[in-house]
TrEMBL record:
Binding site for GTP: 105-112, 187-191, 251-254
Lineage, broadest ranks: Bacteria, Pseudomonadati, Pseudomonadota, Alphaproteobacteria, Rhodospirillales
Top class in the EC scheme: hydrolase
Protein's name in the database: Signal recognition particle receptor FtsY
Keyword tags: Cell membrane, Cytoplasm, GTP-binding, Hydrolase, Membrane, Nucleotide-binding, Receptor
Catalytic function, reaction form: GTP + H2O = GDP + phosphate + H(+)
Organism: Ferruginivarius sediminum
Whole-protein residues included: 61 to 359 of 364
Amino acid sequence: LSRMRKGLSRSSGKLGDGIGAIFTKRKLDDAALEELEELLISADLGVSTAAKMTAGLAKERFDKEVDPQEVRAALAEQVAERLEPVAKPLDLDGSRKPHVVLVVGVNGSGKTTTIGKLAKQWADAGHKVHLAAGDTFRAAAVEQLQIWGQRTGAPVTARDTGADAAGLAYDALQQAQREGADVLLVDTAGRLHNKANLMAELQKIVRVLKKLDDSAPHDVLLVLDATIGQNAVQQVQTFKELVNVTGLVVTKLDGSARGGVLVALADRFGLPVHAIGVGESAEDMRPFSARAFARALVG
Ligand code: GDP
C-alpha cells in the first residue's frame, strides 16, 4: 500500500492541502462548497461526482463551522462508499477448464504487464496458466509476453507479426483445453485509432472462443492507465461499445497518479475494479481496497 500512497501523494497532497486551505476557520457556505467542488474536479473526480459529493457534505453540515480534518474524514467516507461496491478481486471459477480472460485496453496502458502479473499470481497459487499473444501487430508485445511466459512457467501461444488474432486465440484455447489449463489469458491489440478494425477484431476473437466454449470469455478485463486522469472515462465508454467489458484493472498508481478518476469511474460505470498496478514488476499488483484507497486519496 505504501507505493500506492506514495503514488497518490501528489494528487492527495493536492486534495488534502486544498481542503486545508479552503476550510480553515470557515463556515460551510456556498462559496466554500464551490471551492471544494472545483478542487474535487481538479483531482479528477469528474464534474458529476464532485457535485454529488459536495451536495452530500452540504446536506450534513451546511452553515456550520467545519475544520479540514472533519471535511477530509467526511469526503474519505464518501469516496469509500462509492468504491466499496466495485472493489472485487478476480475470482477464478474452478469448474471452467480453462477460465478464459480476455484483456483489452489501449497500447501502453499496461495490458501485457498486467497479464504477466496475473499469470504470476495464479501460477504461484498453483494454477495452470496459459497465455495467448493476441497483440499480433507488435513484435515487441509478443516478445514481452513470451518473457512473462518464461518467468511464470506458463506456455505461450504466439504467431508471427500480422497473424490473425482470432485464429491465434482459437488455437490458444484449444491448446489450453488439451493441457487442462485452469486459466487462459488472452492479450489483444490496442489500436484505438482504428476503432472499426479493433471492434471487428475483438468481436471475432469472442466469436471463435465461443466455438470451443460457449461461455467464454468468462471475463473481459479493461486495463486503464491511471495517469491519463479523466480521459479514462472516455476510454471505458469507448471500450464498452467495442466489447462486453466485465471489469477493470487500473495501472500506474505508483507514479504521479491521478487516482481520483477511480471514483468517477465507480460512480459512472459501476464496473468491478479487480486489481491495481503499482509498478512494473511481477509483484507490483494489489487487490483494490476501497478504504485504504479513499484514505490515501483524500490525505
Ligand atoms: P500494453 O501496451 O498495454 O501491453 O502495455 P505494457 O504492459 O507494455 O506497459 C506499458 C509500459 O507501462 C511498460 O513500460 C510497463 O512496464 C509500464 N507499466 C505497466 N504497468 C505499470 C504500473 O502499474 N506501474 C508503472 N510504473 N508502470 C507500469
